[in-house]
Every structure is written in C-alpha cells, then in structure tokens.
Amino acid sequence: MRIDQPLLHKLAQLSMLEVDEPQLQEHLEEILAFMETLDTLDLENTPPLQQPPTPLRPDAPTHNSSIPSDILSHAPQTQGGYFLVPKILG
What we know:
Layout lengths: L4 H11 L5 H19 L26 H7 L5 E2 L2 E2 L7
Antiparallel strand pairs: 1-2
C-alpha cells in the first residue's frame, strides 16, 4: 500500500503529531510492508499462543469493614463515608 500526501496529511491531523512528513511517510510505508510480509505467512497448522497463568492472587470477594475507613482516611475531605470534591459542572 502506498501512502500518498492526502492520506499522510489526514493521519498527521488525526494523530495530532508534528513530524517531518517525508520521514513519517517512510516509516508508515515500512510498517505496511512489514504487515504485508506477515500476511504471507502460512499459519494454518500453528497452534495459538497459550497465556501463562498470572502470578496474582485469585480474585475472590472478601469483606473487611476497615477498608472503606482506611481509604477515606487519606482523602482531604470526606462526609458520611464519601469523598468530598469541588463542584465542576454548573
């Protein structure tokens, strides 16, 4: 796929990047060429990757009544078990 000037200009506007246009065009064409190369690979008999198990604790619900008060103790202002924040909208 060829990157032409209108497409390059549109991509630059959408990404809100200020990059040297010839350099950006060159990089985008390299990326697209790499993707086209990947598209030619025969992956018919390749099994999907297996995700290793996460080393985190199990996500099990627990009840600890001190958690809300511990969290609220770090807030600058609280009232009735809630955070107080400045009003933003009208």
